Amino acid sequence: MIIREEDFQNHSMSKLIKGAVVPRPIAWVSTISKDGIRNLAPFSFFTVASMSPITLCFSVGSADSDKDTLKNIKETKQFIINLVSESLANQMHESSRRYGPDVDEFELAGTASEDGDFVSVPRVKQSPVHMECELHQVIEIGEGNLVLGRLVGYHIQDDVYEETDKVNPDKLKPVGRMAGDYSYIRDFFSLPNSDLPK
């Protein structure tokens, strides 16, 4: 099947894109409002934008436009990206629901927090990796917003860190986002690999 741009309206392109661009990492983004209300929400359109300066990005699409994350980031210019391990997946899912701006998702999801060291934002205490960011830019793309943040502080749990400055994926136990579901990221291999199907 070939779908031309003029035919996109006749298909569920969101499902076709999200079903093919997988597995996606999850940025569990913590922010705080100017009134001090904590916010926590996951975003699976997330990646590294640059290594010099180190810049992370995630997309807040039109479906997420009523979340408080973007508003808080624009107001405070700060956020933290917490990585989601298997043990935190249920709490992450709970924080993905739509709540009013006066709701503290940390409390509602039963997620322990601790203060950020480089930004005035709380982080998920049990997350294996936290990346503290200052806002670089918000780029409007159609109905969505691409948030770019400059990394100002990095935390990694001791048991996940390897002395060669590597992240141990077996200890990280990340969760990936598929289309509507999630995936374990557990099996790793190097290339070339003669065991792969031909």
Describe the secondary-structure layout.
Blueprint: H1 13-20, E1 27-32, E2 38-43, E3 46-51, E4 54-60, H2 69-76, E5 78-83, H3 89-95, H4 105-109, E6 113-115, E7 122-124, E8 129-141, E9 144-156, E10 161-162, E11 166-167, H5 169-172, E12 175-177, E13 182-184
Written description of the protein model:
β10 and β11 form a beta hairpin. The longest helix is centred in the first third of the chain and has 8 residues. It is globular and about 55 Å long. With 198 residues, it is an alpha+beta fold. The chain is built from 5 helices and 13 strands.
In short:
The protein has 198 residues and is of the alpha+beta class. It has helices at 13-20, 69-76, 89-95, 105-109, 169-172, and strands spanning 27-32, 38-43, 46-51, 54-60, 78-83, 113-115, 122-124, 129-141, 144-156, 161-162, 166-167, 175-177, 182-184. It starts with 12 loop residues before the first helix and ends in a 14-residue tail after the last strand.
